[in-house]
Amino acid sequence: MILFTNLGDLIRRDRDQSKLAIIDLGGEAERYFTYADLDAMTRGVARALLARGFARGDRIAILSANRTEFIAACYGIMRAGFVAVPINYRFPADTIDFIARDAGARLVFCDPARRAQCPGGLPAMCFGANGAESFADFLDPGPFDALPAQPDEPAMFLYTSGSTGIPKGVVLSHQGHIWVVETRLDGQDQSRHRFLIAAPLYHMNALALAKLACAAHATIVLQPQFSAPAYIAAIARHRCTWLTAVPPMIAMMLREQDLLARTDLSSVEFVRMGSAPVSQSLMAALRRALPAAKITNAYGTTEAGPVVFGPHPDGLPQPEMSVGYPHPKVSLRLVDDSGRISDQGVLEMKCPAVMLGYHNRPDLPSPITADSFYRTGDVFRRDADGFHYFLGRTDDMFVSGGENIYPGDVERMLERHPAVAQACVVPIDDDIKGQKPVAFIIAKAGNKADAEEIKRFALAHAPAYQHPRFVWFVDQLPLSTTNKIDRAALKREAAERVAASAASLQSPPPLALPTRGRGGVRGNVGP
Fold this sequence. Notes:
This protein has helices spanning 35-51, 68-79, 93-103, 135-138, 174-185, 204-215, 228-238, 247-254, 257-261, 280-289, 407-414, 451-461, 487-506; strands spanning 20-24, 31-34, 59-63, 83-86, 105-110, 124-126, 154-159, 169-173, 194-197, 219-222, 242-245, 270-273, 294-297, 309-310, 325-326, 331-335, 344-350, 357-359, 374-382, 388-393, 398-400, 403-405, 420-430, 434-443, 471-473, 515-517, 520-522. The chain is of the alpha/beta class. The termini are far apart.
């Protein structure tokens, strides 16, 4: 049964409007918003935008950390028939400017901290500000009926990170993501839950969960941005029942061992990790920290949404490292290098949430096949029971001596070592092999290992070509703007470390000063 006709209108008015919709943890004091408050703010945005004379389909940008006004602005934009364009504020200024121009944004909503990053010449409305750009003064209070979306009408442009090139605007429709919301609800009453959202709302992971929580008439506990101590404190203080995060966020949380030991996290019932690979060691550590919670290793994409896998239809337990069994409402296939459907290959999927295309990018080959499947670029393996396992990105795969290496395979193997908490494998150039793997490792607290031990472990537990030729222990791994491990930064660092090591080996040893002994002058002169 279709409940919603506009992606910005997910509030159930047959439910108690005095219920808390959002507990906003940004700013000096917590703020509380009921569903009536959120609905009124959203209507005020829609009315104000229409009063400015924008045309249906015009794009409106949002440049802000997580806050209630971000959600209200996003919903109000879509309710009035415009297109919401959340922009990653961690991008460089020229990338932010490019996205605003590429999308054809007519106005930008921002928070005070990001006002200086707004593209020049673009009208801005600033959350929490006073004066001519005040968001509060911009709102036009009053009634407003959301415009029913037309078939294939764009609702959002979500721009990819651009780590491998120019950011791409993924065009997502109202109907596609209403389908996502309704499929995730699936007749369940999730209204009792408190969803903790700390991932950025400009990213699909958090934005999709915010929509689900609103449609479920649940409560969102909203952090402005992720901080592990604040995340743990929020769970305890607000008795959060549902966590969603990318794995590096969970890894950082689990390193706060003293804080975890003295904090009551018993309220947590569900943890959904996605957007990046999950290691076996991380899963085991999370189960120890949250023994009563149901933990899901999930998968989704910006281009095709978060509904991809689910439980096995025969009730078989999901293997720990699997992302699940194909969802009954999604068509999936794995295509190998020769183009044949296989038990291992690139995942292709078809569902109503698949994007309408990339905005303004006729230069790109379409990732949509002739029969309407989206080619993800992610490599999976399927076992005999139909469970799927994520192996890695085709973009991350590299060839060493003629052998294909998926970093995720090597990382999962290294993380079986008792001293390894987290590993990231990247390639370095090699004159003979073409490329070869190296590893950055975070050690478990209280455990010791050296590089040679890690190499021996790899040689004993994987093909020789997979073993890392260099191993470096680090305190932390750099994160991208979407809280995933920044592999590009680690590739650069690995190249610099190897070059520095080679330079030191080529430098002649310093001359030693002569020393006097009983036999007269004796020297230790280098070659």
